[in-house]
Design goal:
The complex is a heterodimer of chains A (678) and B (532).
Chain A lengths: L12 E3 L8 E2 L5 E2 L5 H7 L3 H30 L9 H36 L7 H30 L5 H5 L29 H29 L12 H33 L12 H35 L6 H14 L15 H13 L1 H15 L8 H24 L1 H7 L3 H31 L5 H27 L16 H31 L30 E2 L5 H7 L5 E2 L7 E3 L5 H20 L5 H21 L5 E4 L14 H6 L1
Parallel strand pairs in A: 1-7
Antiparallel strand pairs in A: 2-3, 4-5, 6-7
Helix pairs in contact in A: 2-3, 2-4, 2-16, 3-4, 3-6, 3-8, 3-14, 4-6, 4-18, 6-7, 6-18, 7-8, 7-9, 8-11, 8-12, 8-14, 9-11, 11-12, 12-14, 12-15, 14-15, 14-16, 15-16, 18-19
Chain B lengths: L1 H14 L12 H9 L3 H21 L14 H34 L19 H30 L6 H5 L2 H4 L14 E8 L2 E6 L4 E4 L1 E5 L4 E7 L4 E5 L3 E6 L5 E5 L5 E7 L11 E7 L1 H13 L20 H14 L9 H14 L31 E2 L4 E2 L9 H13 L1 H4 L4 H4 L15 H6 L4 H7 L3 H9 L12 H12 L2 H11 L4 H12 L3
Parallel strand pairs in B: 1-5, 4-10
Antiparallel strand pairs in B: 1-2, 2-3, 5-8, 6-7, 6-9, 9-10, 11-12
The chains are: A mainly alpha (678), B alpha+beta (532).
């Protein structure tokens, strides 16, 4: 942000929290909004905290959508030879369940934490590129819309809302199977035109748009973390969550190009008749699997590492001890990220890789257990000798370690390729990755929500309900997924919409279904609790947990500018050391002209709208619907216009003057806990 | 190891207090009484739930279910299970150590009342020696898994030429010389598995036969499976004999398996392959050498001509073969179908069924029956259909507990399958592409005229969801397809269900649409069941 405030008459020396600011105008006459409340504020905001909250809200919404999909799946599988839903709908449900949970649930919830926490944890006032951050949010919303709008059209078609028009319009492709049904892994050639309808086009374009959002966000966080740290916040003083954000961002940057290429090739095959994966013309379906898993396996760590970072913050806080082996935790995170790129073919042990490749990927996969184990050892080391307080986030975090460990064990079992030949694509795998992604990642994220919600909303969640949800989620989860180990070992393949009654799978499928509903109730109550907290919860002090990192030193609710004065960091866990140790935090002197704030912008929202229009009409274009091509071009045009005017609307910005009620306003609040401990 | 597991389970079953009636069970009650005396209803609920869960656990975990990988019947599955159990034991050991330590740490260092006033815990930042020690230990545990893993990879990926059973597995060692060519005698039996949406074909290239969805192999012999795909990716998985290998179009994958016990084995496609993936099952029958030789010989002979039809010997063919019988039958059928009927109702049903197979039903366009003129290449080979213990790729079953075949059930299954295949396997190509169902899936044959002709009233239509306006529109042009007016899929489905539930209507529809009547389907069933 350059110092544009010097001669510009529109700049204000406003008092903090006042919103009467004149709109910004660039020399083109474009106006940048700078409201601080209302719907326009939320649509145009560049504040990382508000963006984080919106990511979180969207993620929770899609968790519920994905959860309903999962419950329908489980209801169908409750008994053998069940005809509750059709095979086609079942296939659409499991495709969208996987896609939704990964891309629209876990990733944006992690992004919510990145957004809200990273600037606060490194002592910055915002991310490096605030408008790019907004762009990521709205692009993500656009991608999510494109994916899920397919459900809308599917539903409309099934109940006949549009009459015959949908069927008639699909000149090149029957418009009957509209929701994606190719699996979240979209294996060619099943995703080819001969085998799946326009659902696959929705899926391709939706994922492609989500990829743009993820890449933009990742570049933003890398630049933020590397360049915007407060003085004294060296890399080895970074909070572990910020470290994991950094590693995750690098993983996204390296992993997403692979799926971008794969999706582009698939789109070309479907739309323009190229031959990347089409067998009849010499294409190689196996190529898709390599490209997909080169992305897909690092994606697992993209999902897991943020949760590991969250747990690494929570465990020390509630055992009143520093993280055991900080450098090793950070280094093992990086090693996991690196090795994550070297194990993709363990998803393909049964595709006929040959002995050497199978052996190599077997051993590399085993190797990845070492840095993962190291993390678990170090978490236990952090607890060792501490004074463990069983708060709600701590219960979730301990649940995370336990469940993640169990998922890790079955992971080791899979790494042994010949044993995996029996387990691959069976319910044993379903159990394994749900232990990692639900028992691990979701519990970690829920722990983080309960931990940081007092800072996000300035209100405390209901603790009793918190414990209840922890019990329901963990119990329901285990009742659902533990029996699946048995089901897989006795030969039940995954992605099957039903099974014969004499296979011996009825009982444990029923148990799993009951567990799924318990789990569903638990997660739902959890979100209800958090939503209630945001509106009605009792006010929280600024530092309710006796926190360790910089975000707890800010007032609650966090002011738009985060830090009235930039802190000077003197140690790892600097706020804890400030409260309990011998090194006090210091602040950069006031430069006398207030805090420079960025103005808001409409253009990222326009880009998002353009992407949504582009993606939806792209699918219809693929089906041969008339005029869809013009909508595609219009959508892309909107994106280009958005970026163009975004570049030309001028840097904007205004000044806020933090309240001058003495030094106390700048200094961190000393929590009652901290005072008592002294 | 697994025997031990079962032993333990049995011991629990016999000795457990839980096997007594619930009133006498409960040492657990003392705990419950202590803590839940205030909530007697909850107490009862809890103890009953606990009892129920224990019972479930003990009775619900059989490891010998039809598709269980924990019940290996051949060296490949055996090796894979041994390896799996190594990983289980190693992980269990780590789990006990790490999990135990975790529980202990959490319990030992929990905050107790009054702790708030104590000084802060020691602020240790880590200990490199502990870290290195634990990393070393982890690697050591992994080596325990890695070494047998590598050995097993090589064992399962190469033909077991160094194993004693390999010599006995060569075709020359157990096949009748008349059935194989001499250059094959040093090779093991090969089966080319082809995966289709959604069924398997099994070709025996050395023996010149092809079957579908059920195949037969000899006991104690190494069999090489060549896995070939043409549409989408499938996966060949026969858990009791070995883990899966994918059938990938454009790749020449293969695997070997061997069965050490005779029996009927259950397998399934394990790679998501589209709508009816769950219905892509297959079966393997493992038999003795003699039975295998007999089966091959009789398969090569082909299915006998319908209802035991025999050609009159002529000077040119004094001893008519099965093929000659079929040829004569076909010519007689072409000249005068009625002449083939004998007056014996059971025989005539078969004959009529065969006539539908080659005539009205057009089944021979896709299906082949070895020996007969039917040589359709694109659907399951039906030569020994009457011997198969399942139909529709394993969805409809007629096997009995003792490994036999329930003929009554088989008749019912075949009829259900050929007359309502889309109900049992949605999206199947017999129905989708060939319109070989009772009702054209696209409803194009379903006009208002046809519907009223078969007895579907206006009331039936409105109660299925057709609006008054739509009805009026339908009446305007009785020859227009219903889909031109009604697009709601649920309404269409309701209408079709109404017709399908009523055999009379079905027959009328058949006469309107030129498709097979119920009686004709029964005759076709009789013919198909006679193929053995």
């Amino acid at each position: 942000m350059s110092a544009t405030h010097v001669a510009d008459p529109h700049h204000h020396h406003a008092v903090a929290d006042k919103t009467q600011l004149a709109p910004e105008k660039s020399h083109l006459g474009l106006t940048r909004p700078d409201r601080h409340s209302g719907i326009i504020d939320w649509l145009t905001t560049v504040d990382h905290k508000k963006i984080g909250i919106m990511y979180g809200a969207a993620a929770m919404f899609f968790f519920l959508v994905g959860g309903i999909e999962a419950l329908l799946i489980r209801a169908q599988l409750a008994t053998s030879e069940n005809h509750l839903i059709t095979a086609e709908l079942y296939n659409q449900l499991f495709t969208m369940h996987g896609t939704t949970m990964i891309f629209l649930g876990v990733m944006p919830l992690s992004a919510a934490f990145f957004n809200f926490l990273v600037p606060l944890q490194i002592g910055a006032r915002d991310v490096a590129f605030p408008r790019l951050n907004t762009f990521s949010l709205w692009t993500f919303v656009a991608g999510a819309t494109v994916l899920n709008v397919s459900w809308f059209f599917q539903f409309a078609h099934t109940v006949g809302w549009f009459g015959d028009s949908l069927t008639i319009m699909g000149a090149d492709q029957p418009l009957s199977q509209i929701a994606p049904a190719g699996g979240w892994f979209g294996y060619a050639p099943l995703t080819g035109r001969e085998y799946t309808g326009i659902g696959t086009d929705f899926w391709i374009v939706g994922l492609q748009i989500l990829g743009i959002a993820s890449l933009a966000a990742s570049f933003n966080f890398i630049v933020t973390i590397l360049n915007m740290r407060a003085p004294g916040m060296t890399m080895m003083r970074l909070p572990v969550f910020t470290w994991m954000t950094l590693i995750t961002s690098f993983l996204i940057i390296f992993a997403f190009p692979a799926i971008t290429i794969a999706l582009a090739e698939l789109m070309f095959d479907r739309l323009f008749g190229t031959n990347f994966f089409r067998i009849e013309n010499g294409g190689q379906p196996i190529l898709w699997q390599h490209l997909f898993w080169v992305f897909g396996h690092p994606e697992v760590y993209i999902l897991v590492l943020p949760a590991m970072g969250i747990v690494s913050e929570i465990l020390p806080t509630f055992s009143k001890k520093p993280l055991f082996g900080y450098p090793i935790i950070v280094f093992s995170g990086a090693v996991i990220g690196f090795l994550g790129f070297a194990v993709w073919s363990h998803h393909m042990f049964t595709t006929g890789l040959g002995k050497i490749a199978t052996a190599a990927f077997s051993l590399l996969t085993m190797a990845i257990a070492v840095p993962t184990g190291v993390k678990i050892f170090n978490w236990m080391g952090s607890l060792w000798g501490g004074r463990i307080k069983f708060t709600v986030p701590m219960v979730f975090a301990l649940g995370f370690i336990w469940m993640f460990m169990m998922g890790g064990f079955t992971g080791i079992m899979h790494s042994s390729a010949p044993a995996d030949a029996q387990q691959q694509d069976s319910y044993f795998v379903v159990a394994h990755f749900h232990y990692v992604l639900l028992g691990g990642v979701l519990l970690g994220l829920l722990a983080g929500l309960y931990f940081w919600v007092p800072k996000i909303f300035g209100r405390m969640p209901n603790q009793k309900l918190g414990y209840l949800t922890a019990v329901l989620v963990i119990a329901g989860f285990n009742i659902t997924f533990f029996p699946m180990h048995y089901l897989g070992l006795t030969g039940m393949p995954r992605r099957t919409h039903t099974y014969l009654g004499d296979m011996g799978w009825d009982l444990w499928n029923l148990v799993a279904t009951i567990g799924a509903f318990i789990l569903g109730i638990g997660v739902f109550l959890c979100f209800v609790n958090l939503a209630w907290t945001a509106v009605k919860g009792p006010k929280s002090p600024a530092d309710p947990w006796d926190g360790r990192t910089l975000e707890w030193s800010t007032p609650t609710p966090v002011p738009a500018y985060n830090f009235a004065a930039t802190p000077i960091v003197q140690a790892r866990d600097c706020y804890w050391v400030h409260k309990h140790g011998d090194k006090k935090m210091d602040y950069q002197p006031d430069d006398g002209h207030g805090i420079h704030m960025p103005s808001q912008s409409w253009w990222p929202l326009l880009c998002g709208f353009g992407f949504a229009l582009f993606g939806t009409s792209m699918a219809f274009y693929a089906a041969g619907v008339p005029f869809a091509g013009y909508c595609v071009i219009t959508g892309l045009g909107l994106v280009v216009v958005g970026i163009y005017f975004w570049a030309l609307e001028g840097p904007g910005g205004y000044h806020l003057e933090p309240p001058h009620d003495g030094e106390a306003a700048k200094k961190p609040t000393d929590s009652p806990v901290a005072t008592a401990a002294h | 190891m697994l025997n031990t597991l079962e032993g333990v389970l049995n011991a629990i079953r016999i000795n457990s207090p839980l096997s007594r009636p619930p009133t006498a069970t409960l040492p657990a009650l003392t705990f419950a009484q202590k803590h839940m005396t205030r909530y007697p209803r909850f107490r009862r609920l809890f103890s009953r739930l606990g009892f129920l869960l224990m019972c479930l656990w003990i009775t619900g975990c059989s490891i010998t279910t039809p598709q269980s990988s924990l019940d290996p019947k051949g060296p490949v599955a055996q090796k894979q299970l041994e390896l799996f159990m190594i990983t289980v034991w190693v992980c269990t050991l780590i789990f006990v150590l790490v999990g135990g330590a975790l529980v202990w740490v959490v319990w030992r260092f929990r905050e107790k009342p009054g702790d708030e006033n104590k000084p802060m815990p020691s602020q240790g930042h880590g200990n490199p020696l502990i870290e290195i020690g634990l990393i070393g230990a982890s690697i050591a545990f992994l080596v325990v898994i890695a070494v047998p893993t590598l050995r097993a990879i090589w064992f399962t990926h190469d033909l077991p030429e160094d194993q004693p059973y390999y010599q006995e597995s060569k075709l020359g060692a157990y096949m009748d010389r008349g059935l194989i060519s001499p250059e094959e005698k040093d090779n093991v039996l090969e089966i080319t598995v082809r995966g289709w949406q959604w069924w398997f074909s099994f070709e025996y290239p050395q023996l010149g036969i092809t079957t579908a969805n059920e195949f037969v192999i000899p006991k104690g012999k190494v069999v090489k499976f060549n896995l070939r795909g043409y549409d989408v990716i499938h996966s060949f998985w026969l858990p009791k004999l070995g883990g899966k290998v994918d059938i990938v179009p454009g790749r020449k994958n293969w695997m070997w398996l061997m069965a050490e016990e005779e029996g009927y084995y259950f397998g399934q496609c394990a790679e998501y392959c589209g709508e009816a993936h769950a219905y892509m099952l297959f079966r393997a029958e493992v038999v003795s050498d003699e039975e295998f030789n007999d089966w091959i010989a009789s398969y090569k002979e082909g299915a006998p001509a319908p209802a035991g039809f025999q050609m009159e010997p002529t000077d040119e063919t004094p001893e008519p073969t099965n093929q000659d019988n079929w040829m004569a039958w076909s010519m007689a059928n072409a000249k005068d179908p009625q002449s083939l009927l004998t007056g014996d109702p059971s025989k005539d049903a078969i004959t009529a069924g065969a006539q539908h197979f080659f005539g009205k039903g057009k089944c021979m366009v896709c299906h082949a029956i070895d020996g007969s003129p039917a040589a359709g290449p694109s659907a399951p080979n039906l030569t020994k259909l009457g011997e198969r213990k399942s139909i529709a790729a394993g969805i409809l079953n007629q096997y009995t507990e003792d490994g036999g075949l329930d003929a009554e059930k088989q008749r019912e299954n075949i009829f259900e399958w050929i007359s309502k295949s889309h109900f049992y396997k949605p999206g199947n190509l017999m129905y989708e592409r060939m319109d070989a169902g009772l009702i054209d899936y696209k409803y194009s044959g379903l006009t208002y005229g046809a519907m009223s002709e078969i007895g579907l009233t206006d009331k039936d239509l409105t109660s299925a969801g057709v609006s008054k306006e739509q009805l009026a529109e339908l009446k305007e042009d009785p020859n227009a397809a219903i889909t031109a007016v009604v697009s709601n899929q649920l309404t269409l489905r309701h209408i079709v269900e109404r017709i399908e539930d009523n055999p009379e209507m079905m027959d009328k529809l058949a006469s309107v649409s030129g498709w097979l009547t119920q009686k004709e389907f029964h005759e076709l069933t009789a013919f198909l069941q006679s193929l053995k």
